[in-house]
Design goal:
Number of strands: 20
Strand order of the largest sheet: 6-7-8-3-9-10
Helix content: 10-25%
CATH superfamily of the largest domain: P-loop containing nucleotide triphosphate hydrolases
Structural class: alpha+beta
Shape: globular
CATH architecture of the largest domain: 3-Layer(aba) Sandwich
Radius of gyration: 24 Å
CATH topology of the largest domain: Rossmann fold
Strand content: 25-35%
Largest sheet: 6 strands, mixed
Distance between the termini: 30 Å
Order of helices and strands: EEEHEEEHHHEHEHEEHHEEEEEEEEEE
Number of helices: 8
CATH class of the largest domain: Alpha Beta
Mean pLDDT: 88
């Protein structure tokens, strides 16, 4: 299931005040452009994820925001203040890395209290803030334990609590769950999201895991080869990808090449495709993008806004969904994710089937053949 939260459109921040603005930010290493003219706006209290493959530039952008590296061009604004050349320690930013970096000789309470003590808070304020954040991360009963006495997930929660407790202007997280197993990672995704909401924190989160981004984010900034491909809600990126890269990287998509006809029409097997998106300019190839779960098996005589005929290769039960792997006449692979039934899906390898999908489920994009 995709987490969807109410958000402004791309690049906007609705009526909330801006917490972070990135304007034309560029970073080069020799002849390599690690980040190119990035523009980004994040509102107060937003959970924004920087998503992309390894080497895409997401960690570079995070490091620039943190002040760990200097930009070659552009500006960084935090709370309406130009922070481009402000030292990292004066930006009011908290950072959570993949390693927990806890003090092994300090109790859980003192680990969390440390940043408050460094800021010379009163003992009463320290106790109030530490007790509150440990309650949120559900570690109130373990305050006297040492980090070595905790599980990996508990240690990660302590690291999160230590960062959240002093309420930095922005919390940056660089793949903090990368070292955890899948079950614990799935649990911690919800924990981090819950903690951010409870503390009304502004979070910039880096990951290469698209499922993690969909679950946790208010908005996602998708980065590829140093450039921002698309910014939007999980729902927008999943159902309205703006590029072939976005369609392929976020979730799973069927990608089918279309034939162009006159007057901006596109055809599939000689039949015009009905779509909610405009046909791209004629200078590029046209591609139909449709999600596997948007396809449905048509019975004889049943119609649909659009339909394709395919030959079934294999049928796989995965629980609530049955995945039908098939191919079109030209060999293009297609996958349909159909609701499983007690009696099973009545198709098998070698069958020819008709798969239908609604106009609103069809996205047409332009791009190269590769």
């Amino acid at each position: 299931m995709i987490a969807v939260h109410p958000n402004p459109p791309q690049g906007a921040c609705g009526g909330s005040r801006l917490k972070l603005e990135v304007r034309g930010l560029t970073k080069r290493y020799g002849n390599t452009v690690s980040l190119a003219a990035a523009d980004l706006a994040m509102r107060d209290g937003e959970f924004l994820t920087l998503l992309g493959p390894s080497g895409s530039g997401k960690t570079t952008l995070l490091s620039l925001i943190a002040g760990l590296v200097e930009p070659d061009e552009g500006e960084i604004w935090i709370d309406g203040r130009n922070a481009t050349h402000v030292p990292s320690e004066k930006r009011g930013i908290g950072v959570v890395f993949q390693s927990y970096a806890l003090f092994p000789h300090l109790s859980i309470y003192e680990n969390v209290a440390f940043p408050l003590r460094m800021r010379r808070r009163s003992e009463a304020d320290i106790k109030k803030q530490v007790d509150e954040v440990l309650e949120v991360v559900r570690l109130s009963g373990l305050v006297d334990r040492l980090p070595a006495e905790l599980s990996g997930g508990q240690q990660q929660r302590v690291a999160l609590a230590r960062c959240f407790v002093y309420e930095p202007a922005i919390i940056l997280m660089d793949e903090p769950l990368g070292a955890l197993d899948k079950r614990l990672r799935d649990h911690m995704q919800i924990e981090i999201r819950r903690l951010a909401q409870a503390r009304r924190a502004s979070v910039v989160y880096v990951t290469h895991d698209q499922e993690e981004a969909l679950v946790m984010s208010d908005r996602i900034c998708l980065i590829n080869e140093g450039r921002i491909e698309q910014i939007g809600t999980p729902h927008e990126l999943y159902y309205s990808p703006a590029s072939l890269f976005a369609a392929g990287f976020i979730g799973e998509s069927n990608k089918i090449r279309l034939m162009r006809a006159s007057a901006g029409r596109v055809l599939l097997d000689g039949v015009e495709v009905s779509s909610r998106t405009a046909v791209p300019d004629a200078g590029t190839d046209a591609w139909l993008i449709v999600r596997p779960e948007s396809l449905r098996l048509l019975s004889p005589g049943q119609g649909a806004d659009n339909q394709i005929e395919a030959s079934v290769d294999v049928v796989v039960l995965t629980g609530a969904l049955t995945r039908v792997h098939a191919h079109l006449a030209d060999g293009t692979p297609v996958i349909a994710a159909l609701p499983s039934s007690f009696g099973g899906i009545a198709v098998r390898a070698g069958d020819t089937v008709r798969l239908g999908f609604d106009r609103d489920a069809a996205v047409i994009l332009g791009g190269p053949a590769s």
